[in-house]
Amino acid sequence: MKCVSNNEVAKALVQKARDPQTRHVEESPKARQIVIEKSFAEWKGVPSPSPVDPLYDLEYMKVIALWREYGIQGQAANVAVIDSGCDTSHPAFAHTEIFERSLVQGDPSLGDPDGHGTWVCGKIVGQGVGIAPMCNLTVYRTLDANGSGTVDASVAALNAILKEGSANVVNISFGSPLFSADQEKAVNRLVRSGVIVCAAAGNYGLDTPFYPGSYKCCLTVAATNAAGVRTSFSDYGGQVDIAAPGVACYSTFPGGQFRAMTGTSMATPVVAGLLTLGVSYLKMVKNMSSRTDIARKVMSALEETAKDVGPKGKDSYYGFGVIDGLAFMQRVAS
Amino acid sequence: MRRAILLLLPLLASCSRCSGPAAPGPGPIAPPVSPFVPGDATETLRVTYLPGKDVLQFNVQRFDDCSALEVVYDGTNYGIMLPNADLYLPADKPGDRHQIQVTCLDDNGAPLNTEKLTQVRPDK
Question: What are the backbone dihedrals phi and psi of residue A39, each rounded to the nearest 5 degrees, phi first?
């Protein structure tokens, strides 16, 4: 598994994060001001009605069979979404309790004035549209009403997740072409503590870095269409680890609405949701408690069971391949 | 160092929730328990009317051949859920009429059959 330390290192990292004596002053003030500007090129491309069955992504992953056969829908698994917030008043979230925090500079308000975060949250925990509707979700709002945010805010969110020990899986469906050493360090610390960080590959359709997805320790997700074929907008390159449905996927939107959206932003919570089911199974059924052991197990299962549809082996377009829900859970349970 | 502190202060000043725990959202709503009659598969669903939300519960006995249900309510697809799941809907008013379409799905999500019904909220 990418970048995972052993349990002792993981515990030490979390403990250090909780130590009030630990300095969090950034090393590079200029880098902190980098604004994540392109995050919504990802999803504003195509809010799309589609002839495809709106819930084809759930059906593709055989989510119904997974829920029934393995008896889990995400219970005991903890997920963090770093995004534009979440409209927790949506009926699709009424069955659960979503925790929220705003880290947007100058705007501590909760909710989701943009909509992107609500969509992502719904794909993970939404009743009817989510893959793991019974998981525990915390939302860290780092993107403002315009869909923009700062690296500072994303780093603050990553550090908060580490300090609180609140997540098995983190979803980041945004990014920037600009590298940040501080952001990379924060991601690395989190992953070494046993947290899986899923990040979008980017929507430029180029072989180009897109951070945080391009950090080595992130699980980077490319988008496929309903036929399982890589989309032309999905970035590619050595950073791509896995591919999942990301065209006209259906999920929640503020104001009680639902929308079909397209982008690697959409594919990322599909992967995060599937991993969450795996985490849930290991915790609930196998009684595993070590976060790093759980992370290793589900990550190995994801990589080893992906459908290798591109050039043989790990390739720049699909990574290890397209996710296979049933094969993944069979491997997790084995 | 001073510049770093000046840049840091606005972030801290605005980040009023950074030092505390995340705040919970509205939270789950537990509808009153209104069990269906054991052995009776004639009733399809029940609606419980709560402040701000309606809760729709399916008679599992009626859908015992279904792996899951896909529900379209007044033309909006509310997605796929297990038959024993509670479906939360926007609150309505007494006298409102709703069209509900429930599709029985197999393990692969393929439709087995579809039932359409009209539900009217009682006046009281």
Answer: -55, -35
